[in-house]
Amino acid sequence: MKIAVCIKRIPDTESRFAVAADGKSVDSAGLKFDISDFDGYALELALRLNEPQGPGEVIVVSVGPEGTQEILRKALSMGADRAVHLTAEALPFDGMAIAGALATELQGQGHDLILFGRNATDTGNATVGPMTAARLGLPCVTAVSWLEIGGGQGTAHRELEGVTETVRFPLPAVLTIDEGIARPRLPSLKGIMAAKKKPLDSRPAALGSVQLTVEALTLPPERTGGRIVGEGADAVPELIRLLRTEAKVL
Amino acid sequence: MMAFEGVDFYRLDGQLSEEERAVRDTVRTWVDEHLIPVIGECYIEGRFPKELVPGLAELGVFGANLPEEYGCAGLNSVAYGLIMQELERGDSGIRSFASVQGALVMYPIYAFGSEEQKRHWLPRLAAGRDIGCFGLTEPDYGSNPAGMITTARETRDGWVLNGTKMWITNGSQATVSIIWAKTGALDDPKSIRGFIVPTSTPGYAAKDQKGKLSLRASDTSEIHLEDARLPKDAILPASGGIKSPLSCLTQARYGIAWGAIGAAMACYDEAVRYSRDRVTFGRPIGGTQIQQVRLADMLTEITKAQCLALQLGRLKDDGAATPQQVSLAKRNNVNMACECAREARRLLGANGILAEYHSMRHLANLESVYTYEGTHDMHSLILGEEITGMSAF
Questions:
Q1: Residues of A in contact with B74 (CB under 8 A)
Q2: Whether residue B369 has pLDDT greater than 90
Q3: Which of A199, B147, B159, B319 is placed for a possible disulfide with B230 were both Cys, Cβ 3.0 to 4.6 Å?
Q4: From A189, which residue of chain B is nearest by alpha-carbon distance?
Q5: pLDDT at A37
Q6: How high is the pLDDT of residue A16?
Q7: ipTM, 2 decimals?
Q8: Do A189 and B2 touch (CB under 8 A)?
Q9: Is residue A241 part of a domain?
């Protein structure tokens, strides 16, 4: 199968984040970047779908600034066949713009599947996958937790609250992938060396007009100390009242 | 627990290529996921975690600096060093396994073997289908391997080996052994040749060395050769003289110079975390001057060792590293790691003696690393000879 996997470069989520001087972006100084978590599952799924079935191609695509090539090469070292870097000075917040750039790239390329992570682990919008599907006029199944492909169609599971939904769809299709479906492999050392020789094309992202922008990033207020509402069993009613009315967690 | 992030005070990451960083990160993640969770228990049980070998092989760790045509990853020396660093961040025993398999078994086959031997053995060893060991040291010949008394007598149809080897890493679990033996008179070190000996050869026996208080997660064995008969083509044709095994040791020592940094970083990392969390006299112990001196010393020495290893690696990749430069790095970095492990253990107080923490395990391991692959003292003498032109050994 010819499978495109759209991946996003995000800061390592274990990093300590600071707001940059412009007040609306994350300070990237000293941050390590990696493939967004759910995109890693999507990539692993694509690699596994092709492994037993012989001929096929896994193409990774990413929109972003220069450093994006590092995660594309990581994807190549994990086993993707080729990569496309859609260059942009910075990644816009506007999912529609990114979906537009991706759709322009993916249009008419004959993919059987186009995979995304369920959402990016940093911005968490979960919009680019479905928007790209809409731009390409393809069916879209989101948050896929299990997948089977055969006879020109696919069956996917989606885990909902307390129930599993089974969805059938025709190929080609756009899927966004939930965690747990296939744990991403580590790049092997040979894979890392092989990645240098695999094609990595680079062209400007056709982002079009960007309608959404981030105005400000504000850190949550510093946590204040706790409050003792009383002692022993007598304090329970007051504690419950406060949890209900003040903290609003009950 | 936060993932291990390494120590990079002098921003040496920027001096590494993207591939070198990727190699380091992939092995680092593997160590976090597969080795760290089991190593404490393996150490106490005195068991090498053999079940991890297929995973290491799949990553491509064994002989990673040898060419791709033999099933290896074809990495440069710096990337190879970084692999050793990350493995030893987990445990010196696991790094020892990889060092032996790569630098002491695959390297001599690559450097001194026939094309047929290379094509047969290297891919199997890279894939972990065969496990190798290196038989040089003998009960009475450690620092003076040229004095060895193991012999290989040529017969009409092959070779007959007799002798005893000791302190052989991987000895009991190996399926193939590189044995060094004298083919001529016992006072003729030029007659030393290498042999590829399948451990199933009649007359070959290995025995686990019991009672170790160091490298407990590693197999250390004695090997006995009693009229072990080998075919003619068991000899490594291009090997000749004591220089051949010593050149293998130079490869392994290079890896150890990096590996020691890994062990030291593990201890430093543990000490820093502990100094933040452990509260005594109403404040974290990290706020006390005595622990800050410990941590400052560790950071300083680790940083110096990193600069040393990286430059040595660059020299090696340029084909310009000398065995004496490797001696200096092995000597300095292992000693440095011993000191870091000891200070970290002390900073951790009573908890420092538990297997739940890593520093004391590293401390005990590093005492072996200090002594093997050229003792600290022998490396002093190698440097002494290099400086003065006079050999003191």
A1: 190, 193
A2: yes
A3: B159
A4: B60
A5: 95
A6: 82
A7: 0.88
A8: no
A9: no
